Every structure is written in structure tokens, then in C-alpha cells.
Amino acid sequence: MSTKEEVLEEVKTTTQKENEIVLYNDDYNTFDHVIETLIYACEHTSVQAEQCAILVHYKGKCTVKTGSFDELKPRCSKLLEEGLSAEIV
């Protein structure tokens, strides 16, 4: 493998964009439900989940998980099944 090929391969791996699950505020779900669901679906600690719930409440949305699309899809589905508003971007 030449030096040129090594550099080209390195650039490809570092520019790969990660996807994000964005959780949106709603008028239906309680803080406790959002926190419990983030712990269950996204494997957050209770502190992480509480911070995300507060951000969603005051800012309207919050990125709750990043990763590959294949990794995020089942997690986002769990959030949606629990009645939360979320999408992968």
C-alpha cells in the first residue's frame, strides 16, 4: 500500500458523519416518563436522562444519542413506542 492510499483511506474514516436521535418537547409526557424511557431506550444514567428532559422542556429539543443509523433505529423506535416525539437526523 502506497503512502497516498494510506492517507486517502484515513480521510474516509474520519469524515463519516454520525447520526443523532433528536427528542422533541410535547405537552403530554411527564418528566418521569421521559426520564424512565431515556434510561430504558438509550441506556442513559438517571442524571443524563434528567438533563436531557430539562433541555427538551426548555429548549424544545435535545440530541439524546449519536451513532450509526443501524444502531440508532431500534432505540428511536423504542422512544416512539413509548409515545415520545423523536427522529433520527
Automatic annotation (TrEMBL):
GO molecular function: peptidase activity
Listed name of the protein: Clp protease ClpS
Keywords: Hydrolase, Protease
A Pfam short name: ClpS
GO BP terms in the entry: protein catabolic process; proteolysis
SUPFAM superfamilies: ClpS-like
InterPro entries: ClpS_core, Ribosomal_bL12_C/ClpS-like
Naturally occurring in which organism (per UniProt): Salegentibacter mishustinae
